[in-house]
Amino acid sequence: MEDLGLVWETVESLHHFLYPDGCQLYAPEREPACVPLVLTNILGTCTYAMAIKFTRLFFIEKPSDVRCGHYNLLPWTGCMSSLSGTLTNSKLIYLPTVIVMVSRMPYFRLLKEALSG
Fold first, then answer.
1. Which of 27, 36, 45, 59 is 20 to 30 A from 82, alpha carbon to alpha carbon?
2. What CA–CA distance (Å, rounded) separates 1 from 41?
């Protein structure tokens, strides 16, 4: 990342720009969205990025012996046979997910096509 002019703190802080209201779980699926970013360091060097925000379907299950608010979270595969609990203590939810591509050059259209395809 250093050869792109980025430090790890910049990468860790991207979620503040992509989800300014914080990450939330969703019951209905959200439409994917591409977000162009220009990341500038203290020397004024620009690095360009394109992020695609989308939601992934997960199965959340409240175990019968739940302690301290722990839940089982499983990626949804469409198969109900792997579920251990009853459906009354479970729900399908959408978790926000982000993929970011970084470039030294402002190839926003190319980055968007790569992420959207």
1. 27
2. 13
Give the Cα separation of 108 and 103 in Å (integer): 9
Using one digit for the tens of pLDDT, what is the confidence trace for 44-66?
A: 888 888 899 998 888 887 776 66
Domain ranges in the chain are 2-116
CB 52 within 8 A of CB 99: yes
SS3 category, 101: strand
Q: Is 13 helix (H, G, I), strand (E, B) or coil?
A: coil
pTM of the model: 0.70
117 burial type by CB count under 10 A (0-12 exposed, 13-18 middle, 19+ buried): exposed
- Identity at 7, one-letter amino acid code: V
Q: Is 36:43 a contact under the CB 8 Å cutoff?
A: no
